[in-house]
């Protein structure tokens, strides 16, 4: 009997050893090396469940990550690799592809072209890995837009940079918290420009991207609330110039005809209240602050920024480089932990070579 049990245990062990690893490989970009990026990257990869659902590979600077670990007062085995195939995924180890773009004496908390340029190339490398199928998702630590611009890379932010590298003309920003998720029709443009840009086609495509992302996260038929532009959704023409009827309602009618549960246009304050109590799985905001404000009130430390519409999913912390506390070991790493978790949740398993 004992020999039979022992044989069964050995067979199970053999099967486990030979079974393909279906966890997605996630490229984790370190962000601006002068900010809190190195610290939150190390903190997230040393978290208890970091390797449970995915296989993370950092694109960043080995020495800077070591400084981040030192600032946090933690021990990490930070190992430089040349490509994804060299990575070994085990707790306590951090695999890093290092393009050697930062000098050892880069100061903490100072905006610089050097750090901005490095952050730009970390994103470029991650996108290239994604396009080649070597990673199935991307998780980004924060970059600094001023530093990025100082380096000559003039993009409004991460979202536009990712779209550029992957050759995608239109993507959407989604913010996710445990209580509410919101996708934006427009983001980094002025309010007047945003209103001019909002059209039924753009609203429809944004909702469809959000619908698809929610399905990937496991919600088969997500309920989607669509915000109006004007207060009280225009209140039958009392506020605004009929933007809701012209720019939003036609999109909702088309979506509903296709079986998508999109409702609105709703007054934004009402929409977020209803989402907060669980009536909606996703809210569609028309412009940047309409969506960002409520999410940040709910708790930025647990917020995650998701880019949908790319060939691979991208998640990020919903905070900046925090130059004022960089290198001090006091940054809250929970948003980065959650960003990595959601990247794993929304990314597919790698395609296995037969």
Question: Would you write up a description of this structure?
Answer:
The chain is an alpha/beta fold and 354 residues long. Helices cover 41% and strands 16% of the residues. It has 12 helices and 12 strands. The protein has a 12-stranded mixed beta sheet with strand order 3-4-2-1-5-12-11-6-7-10-8-9. Helix 2 packs across helix 3.
Explain briefly what this protein structure is:
With 354 residues, the chain is α/β, with parallel strands linked by helices. The protein has 12 helices and 12 strands.
Overall 3D form: globular
Order of neighbouring strands in the sheet with most strands: 3-4-2-1-5-12-11-6-7-10-8-9
Mean pLDDT: 91
Distance between the termini: 38 Å
Please count the beta strands (DSSP E, at least 2 residues each). 12
Largest sheet: 12 strands, mixed
What's the order of the H and E elements? HEHEHEEHEHHEEHHEHEHEHEEH
How much of the sequence is in beta strands?
A: 15-25%
Blueprint (SSEs and pairs):
Blueprint: H1 2-18, E1 25-29, H2 37-45, E2 55-59, H3 62-72, E3 77-81, E4 93-97, H4 113-131, E5 137-140, H5 145-150, H6 158-166, E6 172-176, E7 181-184, H7 191-197, H8 200-216, E8 224-227, H9 243-257, E9 262-266, H10 268-276, E10 282-285, H11 288-299, E11 304-308, E12 313-317, H12 334-346
Parallel strand pairs: 1-2, 1-5, 2-4, 3-4, 5-12, 7-10, 8-9, 8-10
Antiparallel strand pairs: 6-7, 6-11, 11-12
Helix pairs in contact: 2-3, 2-12, 4-6, 8-9
